Amino acid sequence: MSVKIKIAVDAMGGDGSPKKVIDGIIHNNQSNKNNFYKIFGDKNKISPLIENKINKEFYEIFHTENAIKSTDSPLEGAKRGKDTSMWLAIQSVKEKQADIVISAGNTGALLVVSKLNLKMIENIDKPALSALWPNKKGMSVVLDLGANIECSAKNLSDFSSMGAALYNSLYPDEIANVALLNIGSEELKGNEVIKETYQILNDKKSVNFNFSGYIEGNHLMDGEVDVIVSDGFTGNTV
Amino acid sequence: MSVKIKIAVDAMGGDGSPKKVIDGIIHNNQSNKNNFYKIFGDKNKISPLIENKINKEFYEIFHTENAIKSTDSPLEGAKRGKDTSMWLAIQSVKEKQADIVISAGNTGALLVVSKLNLKMIENIDKPALSALWPNKKGMSVVLDLGANIECSAKNLSDFSSMGAALYNSLYPDEIANVALLNIGSEELKGNEVIKETYQILNDKKSVNFNFSGYIEGNHLMDGEVDVIVSDGFTGNTV
Q1: Could you list the residue range(s) of the whole structural domain that residue B212 is in?
Q2: Helices B107-118, B85-94: inter-axial angle, 10-degree rounding
Q3: pLDDT tens per residue, range A6-17
Q4: Do B195 and B108 fall within a single domain?
């Protein structure tokens, strides 16, 4: 028997939870028998949704009645305690009981509780929110999408490495082209942080990715760039 | 005979000039006989494009061979002298020979030369670039689209008044709903400048527009807001 990937799922986060979350698990299980779901949340609500839909060998429910609300501030969410479905799901990764954690819940709380529990990779100062955006040729990794309103050149440089690493995990045979989202493609345009980041990335010449300079908003869909780096304010609004 | 609106046109700016610019004039003249075009640029290139296409009562060509290039920096453009097609077109507004100036040329130079010649309205510190964006119900005025990389709360507050004035000139019977582009609709989200602007606009209660608070990027097309205010960096990339 192959070893399954263990996915910790916060069943109580997001609109329409836990039904929408459990439906997602059922949907995934139909095409992928290689995942094991560690489901954190209210057993009385979750069990009726999943029983007889998925074989019991694929999941386990970890009961808790406490949950972070979508209206909580990040700090309020963290302060709800160590027995919320989100906290327990994250903790299972920390304790190496799970390989990865998924939550559709309060994004700010997810960041804060994750950072508290899992800490940062050495030399990386801030976490970032990332997503895959479609382009004319495939998909681009885009970050940060709102975790950090104001970013330093160090942060943006870190995001370039983090985005390239994510891209490489998705497309192991490719070297990522990384670009900074800016208001022009010429070196002299943009704010001071952007220009400083440009210098850092241009001088560093990372072996893990190619630095392609700036990308303008109207070229995001062209597919020439695999990783698009931005501060969280601009990335979120775009 | 009614008095025509006098439009100063920089014929030498933008890709495909002067042909594209002159084609635009011809196109406009077909449906609107109320405009008179003061065309600034190289007469030898312009005349063959417009002769026999438009009656001579609708236009006059002001010859100059000097023009600002798209590759000029704003300052380089301004330094090309007072006989460029763009400078002369702007100057005709200053001298009240024209009511309005249009250029598809170097945007940075257009801003700098306009500010030098026409000055700012009293109490307004910075000009802004604006456009009309379609939404589900009509059009929204959006500004700033790239003139000002970094903006103070005073600037964003000014842009609100300027955008509302533009909206009112287009739709005289409506009171504009003005909103600030932000990463969330709650008061506590965003950077310090955005929050300070929120306070200014909320306290001021302008009679010229309704302040509707924040708008998120995913609601730009909803049509609930008539004027969308942003710093130039975010506005340009969005």
Answers
A1: 130-237
A2: 30
A3: 999 999 998 899
A4: no
